[in-house]
Amino acid sequence: MCSFGTDEYMERxxxxxxxxxxxxxxxxxxxxxxxxxxxxxxxxxxxxxxPQFKSKEHEKxxxxxxxxxxxxxxxxxxxxxxxxxxxxxPYSDDKSELLAVVMSLPERYRTVIHxxxxxxxxxxxxxxxxxxxxxxxGTRLARARNLLKGEISDEL
Length: 156
Hints:
Elements: H1 7-29, H2 32-49, H3 56-80, H4 96-103, H5 107-118, H6 123-130, H7 134-155
Helix pairs in contact: 1-2, 1-3, 1-5, 2-3, 5-7, 6-7
């Protein structure tokens, strides 16, 4: 395993976590450029804070949490400045219709859906990343599923 701060360490972290971080940021922001900025800021936080991680999973969860927090802060800043935050989708084309439906959900539901289905985290892990009770994460996931079911059945 490479030591913190080395080129090998950063290369490994970028390769293993950047796509997940980008998708998480996009699920909050709805803009590829803003999502890329949020991911870059999260990597800068990693370098500045130099946290100690118990495992690679803990490291990825920390980076996702930081990315989501930065994204929410960017969204608040954009809302205050009345700036638009929409652009193209950084996901593959075969999922674009489903993603459009997911992106129409409120942010609290989009984030839970993203972490649970796209990243493969359990409800308990999702709750830990979002710093909410597991029951709340489960409720948000259930509500998001119901909203998605309604949206998808309306389109069919």
